[in-house]
Design brief:
With 150 residues, the chain is of the alpha+beta class. The protein contains 4 helices and 6 strands; from the N terminus they run H-H-E-H-E-H-E-E-E-E. It is globular, with a radius of gyration of 16 Å. The mean pLDDT is 95.
C-alpha cells in the first residue's frame, strides 16, 4: 500500500472519531460514500441481531443521535490494519476505546467500550471514504470518573 493511501485511511478513522465526539453530523456524512452502510451489533442496538443503517446522511444523524444524550464522548483510535484491494478499494480493522461520559447521582460515570471497526473503503474522486463500517464490541466497563476543566 502506498504510504499516502495509508496516511489518508488513518486520517479518515481519526476524523470519524473527532466528528462523533464533536457531534458534527455534517462532517461525519462527508467521511462516507453516499450509499455507505454502518452496522451496529446487538450489544449496542438493543435487539437480537445487527442493525444496518444505510446512506451517509442517515447514518451520520443516527450515530450522533445515539450519543447525544451523553455528557461527552472520547473515541481513541488505536492500531489500524489496512489492506489495499485495488487502486480504489481497501479494507481494514481499527481498534478503538470509546468513552461515554454520563451523569449519575451527584457525579459522572464512564461507560468505556473497547471495540473494533471492520471497515471497507472506496476512493471517490481521489478521496478515501468509508463504504461500510461494522462495529464489534469486545468488552465494556463502567466506572466513576471526575470531570476536570471545561
Amino acid at each position: 500500500m502506498d504510504p499516502s493511501d495509508r496516511i489518508a485511511l488513518t486520517d479518515l478513522a481519526a476524523r470519524y472519531a473527532q466528528a462523533v465526539d464533536r457531534r458534527n453530523t455534517t462532517t461525519l456524512a462527508t467521511l462516507f460514500t453516499e450509499n455507505a452502510k454502518f452496522v451496529l451489533p446487538p450489544a449496542l442496538n438493543g435487539t437480537d441481531a445487527p442493525t444496518e443503517i444505510a446512506g451517509n446522511t442517515t447514518l451520520s444523524t443516527s450515530i450522533v443521535d445515539a450519543v447525544a444524550h451523553l455528557h461527552s464522548t472520547r473515541h481513541i483510535v488505536q492500531q489500524q490494519v489496512l489492506d489495499l484491494d485495488s487502486d480504489t478499494t481497501a479494507h481494514g480493522e481499527a481498534y478503538c476505546s470509546a468513552h461515554h461520559i454520563y451523569p449519575r447521582g451527584d457525579g459522572f460515570r464512564d461507560n468505556l467500550i473497547e471495540l473494533r471497526y471492520q471497515d471497507s473503503f472506496e476512493k471517490v474522486d481521489g478521496t478515501w471514504l468509508f463504504s461500510r463500517r461494522e462495529l464489534i464490541v469486545d468488552f465494556a466497563e463502567d466506572v466513576p470518573v471526575v470531570l476536570l476543566g471545561r
